[in-house]
Amino acid sequence: MLRLQTIVILAACSIAVAFGQNRAAPSSGAPPDQTEPPPPVQVSNEVMLGRVDRKTMPVYPDEAMKKGIQGDVVFRIEVDETGKITSSTPVDGDPMLVAASTDALRTFHFRPYLVNGMAVKVKSQLGFRFAVKKSANGANGRVECIASLPDQP
């Protein structure tokens, strides 16, 4: 009988220790209330253009218009949880048009991107198309956002 009581007591102690280990801090070593923020979410430029809250389009540089310089300017951007561009890296474009576009990007602001109801950082691309139309009266320049960009690494 004493042997049975000893076995029951040992089993109860083992179960208590097992429950106590499950309540310990996570094995990652970080305290439970200091979790790392999730990595930025990759979002297409079409989605980002739909989330623009405010923007100023680039001003076509006079010198570029006179020289007939035109084409696309593409940036890789990172946007924080508030919708502000925190990083922009030119991927393609003429240097004069890139400079004009960089100035305009500073004015862009987006509605926060939500994942499971929480605002997250975003990586995307943004581009501008510069087009020149020459006529007898001089040159006319037009700038528009590029609606669809292929994903670039």
Describe this structure in words.
The chain has 153 residues and is of the alpha+beta class. The protein has one domain (41-153): TolA/TonB C-terminal domain (2-Layer Sandwich). The protein has helices at 2-22, 45-50, 62-67, 95-105, and strands at 41-42, 52-54, 71-79, 85-92, 109-110, 113-115, 118-120, 122-135, 138-145. Strand 6 (113-115) and strand 7 form a beta hairpin. Residues 10-25 have low confidence and may be disordered.
| Beta-strand fraction estimate | 25-35%
By CATH's scheme, which homologous superfamily applies?
TonB
Report the order of strands and helices: HEHEHEEHEEEEE
Number of strands: 9
Q: Classify the helix fraction into a percent range.
A: 25-40%
Count structural domains: 1
Distance between the termini: 72 Å
Summarize the structure.
29% of the residues lie in helices and 34% in strands. The protein contains four helices and nine strands; from the N terminus they run αβαβαββαβββββ.
Write the SSE topology.
Elements: H1 2-22, E1 41-42, H2 45-50, E2 52-54, H3 62-67, E3 71-79, E4 85-92, H4 95-105, E5 109-110, E6 113-115, E7 118-120, E8 122-135, E9 138-145
Which terms summarize this structure?
153 residues; alpha+beta; TolA/TonB C-terminal domain; 5-stranded mixed sheet; two-stranded antiparallel sheet; 4 helices
